[in-house]
Amino acid sequence: MDRDAIAHYRREGYLVVPGVLDRSHVEECLAALTALATDPGLQPSQRDASGAFIALEPGADPHAVDRADLIRKFGDFTDAAPALLRAAMSERLHAVLDALMGQGRVLLQEMALVKPPKVSGEKPWHQDAAYFRGSDPNLMFGVWIALDPATRENGCMEVIPGSHLRGPAPHVPAEDINLCTIRPDLVRLEDRVALPMDPGDVLIFYSLLHHYTAANRSDQRRRALQFHYHQVGLEWTSLEAHRVLYHDADGFYAGCTVPKGAPFAEASSFVPSRLRPVVPMA
Q1: What are the pLDDT digits (tens) for 11-32?
Q2: Cα 218 vs. chain centroid, distance in angstroms?
Q3: CB 141 within 8 A of CB 206
Q4: Residue 191: phi, psi to the nearest 5?
Q5: 182 backbone dihedrals φ, ψ, rounded to 5°
Q6: What pTM was estimated for this model as a whole?
Q7: Class (C level, CATH) for 3-270
């Protein structure tokens, strides 16, 4: 990792690293997702014995026999799929992360984000730190790994370079927390940059970076892995502490850990299901 790449990451808030996963590993990851998608024991809104879960596109029939192109998200799958665990713990990936952030981190969240052809919706502009009650957003970051070609047409990642430097931005809550979004007047759309990626490429980004993916209206699938990590030293804080970071002009909570209409209470707020120490794997 050269100095220019490290400087770009810190200045712009993101870095694309080509070919971190080789083609054979990408194919193993796709096969693992297909196996999860077709597993009759894995039902929407339920976890299987390993802890894995799936979520369907809004309005999709949960009893559909062929649901591969109805799934929008897989989660907590590393105990069920060795190829996906190796992606999260990739030696090549963590060598890059060591250079950018220093050593010592844990896996905070594991997901596969899928945009099925024609039917998938957009993911509004947001900051990942709005979803996590971490004591220091600068110690949290996302890793987004393309498994299919990610293009403008099928919903590649879009970012606002440098937006992480402006700190936490008030979000507009939603009943579906996946639709929680940065207050529109705070998003500098004129600065947006689309990031097309090839399978195996990795996007690393600060948890305060403004980012977005458009709906997939193409005929092509867009499957990607997304892992969140935090460096050691970060603590999981109270909802009140998160409100100090994420609040509107009147002081009301403006983060994304509580669905719109739910009580402002710890019991209503998202918490990670598990934290896994990082043990790099070949």
Answers
A1: 999 999 999 999 999 999 999 9
A2: 22
A3: yes
A4: -100, 0
A5: -60, 140
A6: 0.96
A7: mainly beta
